[in-house]
Task: inverse folding
């Protein structure tokens, strides 16, 4: 388990998690299960909602694989978030009567929050949530041969979709307020992955 991540906005380098993820692969890890806090772009998914990431949009169009050599750097992202594991997570949520939304996560570089105009554009593109992480790690994980599953906890509405001012402190406060619900589902999901046969081959 990795405690936290290195965000691109910290240094401008989107390959900051390469060493950690490649080490996990070398140690025999098969699955990267990611979590993040995100802003919701959909009224039906208010703060406190949990979203299963089914796809992503790389808005900055930056890649952590720049500088890599060989054909392996041309990674197929057509099923970046593992279809079998998505189905497994849906079944678990249904069995536990957990309200689990699904949608597309958009990566914005940050660290500033988005403008209302940017949020409207992202929603028109088909994004359901926006955040400042996850996409570089997914690319790196797929390059390493790891399967990927991701969950987003909505901590605010995107700029212009609510009345509150967006601050990092408010994001952390909402994450803490909703954290126990999300943490319980995450713990149950991790336990249930032992029942996925393909993870044991």
Result:
């Amino acid at each position: 388990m990795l405690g936290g991540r290195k965000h691109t906005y910290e240094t401008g380098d989107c390959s900051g998690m390469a060493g950690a993820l490649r080490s996990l692969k070398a140690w025999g890890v098969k699955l990267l299960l990611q979590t993040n806090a995100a802003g919701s772009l959909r009224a039906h998914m208010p703060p406190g909602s949990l979203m299963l990431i089914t796809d992503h949009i790389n808005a900055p169009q930056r890649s952590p694989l720049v500088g890599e050599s060989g054909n392996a750097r041309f990674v197929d992202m057509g099923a970046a978030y593992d279809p079998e594991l998505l189905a497994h997570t849906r079944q678990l949520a249904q069995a536990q009567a957990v309200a689990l939304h699904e949608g597309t996560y958009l990566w914005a570089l940050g660290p500033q929050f988005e403008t209302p105009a940017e949020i409207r554009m992202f929603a028109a593109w088909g994004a359901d949530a926006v955040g400042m992480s996850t996409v570089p790690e997914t690319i790196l994980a797929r390059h390493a041969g790891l399967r990927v599953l991701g969950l987003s906890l909505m901590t605010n509405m995107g700029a212009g979709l609510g009345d509150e001012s967006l601050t990092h402190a408010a994001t952390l406060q909402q994450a803490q307020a909703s954290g126990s619900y999300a943490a319980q589902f995450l713990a149950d999901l991790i336990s249930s992955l032992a029942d996925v046969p393909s993870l044991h081959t």
User: Anything to note?
Assistant: Residues 122 and 176 are 26 Å apart (CA to CA). The longest strand covers residues 147-157.
